[in-house]
Design brief:
Elements: H1 12-31, H2 35-38, H3 41-93, H4 101-106, H5 112-116, H6 119-134, H7 140-203, H8 207-211
Helix pairs in contact: 1-3, 1-7, 3-6, 3-7, 6-7
C-alpha cells in the first residue's frame, strides 16, 4: 500500500498510528542488521514524541472545555435561582400586588424568557436588576437582602464565561500545534519514503520492500448491490 498522504482531515490518532508503525518498522529493520534503514528512524522518533505530548494535551483541552461548559450551566442555574428569589421577595414586599410600582420597576417583563436563555444573556438582565435594587425608590429591606448575593451571582457568572472563553482559546492553540505537527509528520514520512526508494533502487529491491515500512491501508469497501425495483404484489 505504501505511504498514505496526511491531510488536514487526517485525525491525530491516524497520524500517530502511521508514525508509530514506521518507527517500529525502521527499528526492526535495524535490529535485523539493516543499518541504512535504521538510520532513518531518529527523525520519526522525534515526531512520535511530539505526537505523544500533543495527544495528551488534546485530551486535556477537551476535558477543560467540558469542565467549563458544566460550570457555565451551573452558574446559569444559580442565576435562575437568584432572580426567582428576588422576585419572590419583591412579591412578598408588595403583598403580592403584581401591579405595584416597586414590583413593576424590578420586573417589567415576565420571568419565563429569562429562564430560557443562556448565561451570557442572563447577566445583562441581572445587572439591570442590580441597578434597580440600588435605587432609593427600592425598599431598603429588598436592597439589603438581595444585592449582596446578586452581586456574587453576577461575579461568578462572569468568571464562568471567562473560564469557558479561555478554555476555547487554549483548545484553539493546541489545535494549531497539532496542525503544524501533522504537516511535519507528513514531510518526515515523505522524506523517509524517498530515502527508502533510493535504497530499494540501489539494492534492486521491489516496491513491496518500501511498502513494508508503512501500515497497510484498509481494503476498499464493497458497494452494496443494487436491488431492482419491483411493483408491489396484489
Amino acid at each position: 500500500m505504501g505511504r498514505r498522504e496526511i491531510t488536514l482531515r487526517t485525525a491525530i490518532e491516524d497520524v500517530f498510528n502511521q508514525v508509530s508503525y514506521v518507527a517500529s518498522a525502521l527499528t526492526l529493520a535495524g535490529q535485523d542488521g539493516d543499518t541504512d534503514a535504521a538510520a532513518l528512524a531518529s527523525g520519526v522518533e522525534t515526531i512520535l514524541q511530539r505526537g505523544e505530548l500533543l495527544h495528551v494535551e488534546k485530551r486535556l483541552r477537551h476535558r477543560e472545555i467540558l469542565h467549563a461548559n458544566a460550570l457555565v450551566r451551573r452558574r446559569a442555574l444559580q442565576a435562575d435561582e437568584r432572580i426567582t428569589a428576588i422576585r419572590n421577595g419583591a412579591l412578598a414586599e408588595v403583598n403580592f400586588d403584581r401591579g405595584h410600582p416597586v414590583f413593576v420597576r424590578l420586573f417589567p417583563e415576565a420571568l419565563t424568557p429569562f429562564l430560557r436563555v443562556g448565561l451570557a444573556s442572563k447577566l445583562p438582565e441581572l445587572r439591570r436588576l442590580d441597578g434597580t435594587l440600588s435605587e432609593p425608590e427600592t425598599p431598603e429591606t429588598l436592597r439589603e437582602a438581595h444585592r449582596p448575593p446578586l452581586a456574587e451571582t453576577i461575579e461568578r457568572g462572569d468568571g464562568a464565561l471567562k473560564a469557558r472563553e479561555e478554555a476555547q482559546l487554549a483548545a484553539g492553540r493546541t489545535g494549531a500545534r497539532i496542525g503544524a505537527w501533522r504537516d511535519d509528520a507528513n514531510a518526515v514520512l515523505l522524506g523517509i519514503e524517498g530515502a527508502l526508494k533510493t535504497l530499494a533502487a540501489a539494492r534492486r529491491s521491489g516496491r513491496d520492500w518500501v511498502d513494508s515500512f508503512f501500515p497497510a491501508g484498509e481494503p476498499p469497501r464493497k458497494a452494496r448491490p443494487k436491488v431492482a425495483w419491483a411493483p408491489p404484489g396484489p
